[in-house]
Amino acid sequence: MKLSAYRTEIRWTIVVVVLAVLGVIALWPRDAEQRADSAAAPAPPPAAKPVDPAQRAAAALEACPTGEGAPAQLAGITGTCQADGEPVDLGAAVAGEPTLVNVWATWCGPCRTELPALQAYAEQPGAIRVLGVQVQSDPGDGLDLLAELGVHFPNVHDGDNRIRAALKAPNVLPISYVVTGAGEVRRIDPPVAFETPDEVRAAVERTLGAR
């Protein structure tokens, strides 16, 4: 009896070990897949720092424009007006008259050269309206940069990249567009950074006259 009981105990031990090994094997691929999915998931973007009202005052930006007859491509696409922190419909902001839309970011070196050239162009007689769209960078940092550069034309912060997606902007900055009075959105090509207001004017006239 003792030998039989001993053999029975060994059999049950083997059964338990086999079941445990099978359980580990069954769960291992799922666990590995979960870890792989977790590693592949992109990190959420960092939350933007609160904007100090003093930053807006120092930047002294012009109010975001609004008009009727928004281009279908941009209608209903909203951002935050950097002048006052209020939501702004980009379609309405570029409606009603020709508008130069410039997409930029604080980390973009060429943008630091181009923004003052755009400001100088905006101050010239006969210039079309200029609107900046800040992307992929903190709004407060953008206000500080605009104040440093003496740039005051209206700017919109694109916190969720909806504006950039609507413009179908490539992964290169800066990039500019001309929205015609009829609401057609035309990219300025080639996408080079402007260094002077005369370069801006030439590109705007060339793009408006295309087609």
Automatic annotation (TrEMBL):
The keyword Transmembrane helix applies. One of its GO terms (biological process) is cytochrome complex assembly. InterPro entries: AhpC/TSA, Thioredoxin-like_sf, Thioredoxin_CS, Thioredoxin_domain, Thioredoxin_ResA/DsbE_sf. Residues 64-209 form the Thioredoxin domain. GO terms for cellular component: cell envelope. Coiled coil: none annotated. The chain crosses the membrane at residues 12-29. Pfam families: AhpC-TSA. It is found in: Cell envelope. GO terms for molecular function: antioxidant activity; isomerase activity; oxidoreductase activity. Keywords: Cytochrome c-type biogenesis, Disulfide bond, Isomerase, Membrane, Redox-active center, Signal-anchor, Transmembrane, Transmembrane helix. This is Thiol-disulfide isomerase or thioredoxin.
